[in-house]
Amino acid sequence: MKEGLSQMPGPIGIFDSGYGGLTILKEIKKILPEYNYIYLGDNARAPYGTRSFEVVYEFTREAVNKLFEMGCHLVILACNTASAKALRTIQINDLPQIDSERRVLGVIRPTVECIGKITESRHVGVLGTTGTIKSQSYPLEINKLFPDITVSGEACPMWVPLVEYNEANSIGADYFIEKHLDNLRYKDHLIDTIILGCTHYPLLLPKINRYLPDGVKVISQGEYVAESLKNYLLRHPEMDAKCTKEGKQLFYTTEAEEKFSESASLFLNQPISVQRISLE
Ligand code: DGL
User: Fold this and answer.
1) Span between the terminal Cα atoms of the chain, in Å
2) pLDDT tens digits, residue range 211-238?
3) Residue in 4, 235, 223, 220 with CA at minimum distance from that of residue 103
4) Of the residues 72, 156, 198, 243, which is catalytic?
5) Contact indicator for 153, 125 with CB cutoff of 8 Å
6) Is 243 annotated as catalytic?
7) Residue 198 annotated in active site
8) DSSP states of 22-48 as a string?
């Protein structure tokens, strides 16, 4: 086991490349308000979506290590790109060396599990970063559970920068949103369910809904990930006992503090105080 890691109970770590994971934290807090959380956004190095496997893995591993050093025993990668490109390697190669009792969970599996009950046409679309779509993680995971579902993916490389640079509500955003939704529906016009396979995308939801016809359902991951975490903690009382429960949250970013607290406070509808840290 890595030296210096505390065995005392600690908060649940929530990691994303930037603000997107807040969409997950928000839903988790609704159904698990009594737990303590540490949110870490690697805003200085976002977006991850266009980066290589090696770089996403390296950055994610640094973030997970930092959250473990801060006392977390359980870390949620509230980021599809990191879940697609780094989760498995961290679980298989890194955790046994760091501490085989600690856990890192992702957001793809909980999202995929719900899809079988939602689509009627059995044609599903996935919107995600270039990294997530190229990894084929969604079609592979969906078809493991539901071989009858046809999955089409569309990478939306401009959507994360729109959120990170606070342009989600600008007129300029409409162009990129309409373009990728049209591309996806052109690939398969039978799609009746679209997964927002990037935790940043729910922040674009009002505009996304504007460009979709009635009858196409849009799946944001937050509530499914939250429900899955709740079940996980029920099934793993030994992990639950390692999670502190005082209803507190701490926020960390690798970018400027003012920038993060302004955007995060708006999003969570509460004042956020945040501390800047370095992961390198
Ligand atoms: N929010 C992340 C995701 O779910 C990462 C986006 C990015 O940094 O490109 O994929």
Assistant:
1) 21
2) 999 999 999 999 999 999 999 999 999 9
3) 235
4) 198
5) yes
6) no
7) yes
8) HHHHHHHHHH-TTS-EEEEE-GGG---
The Cα 60–Cα 54 span in angstroms is 10
β-pairing verdict for 249-253 and 274-276 = parallel
* 194 DSSP β-pair partners: 125, 218
Ligand 1 mean position, distance from CA 25 (Å): 15
- Give residue-wise pLDDT tens across range 241-279: 999 999 999 999 999 999 899 888 877 878 889 999 999
253 has which bridge partners? 41, 276
Residue 11's pLDDT band, with cuts at 50, 70 and 90, is very high
For ligand 1, which residues put their CB under 6 angstroms from it? 16-18, 20, 46-49, 79-81, 129, 132, 160, 198-200
Residue 50 CA, closest ligand 1 atom number:
9
* Full-model pTM: 0.95
State the residue for tokens 């992702």. Answer: 106
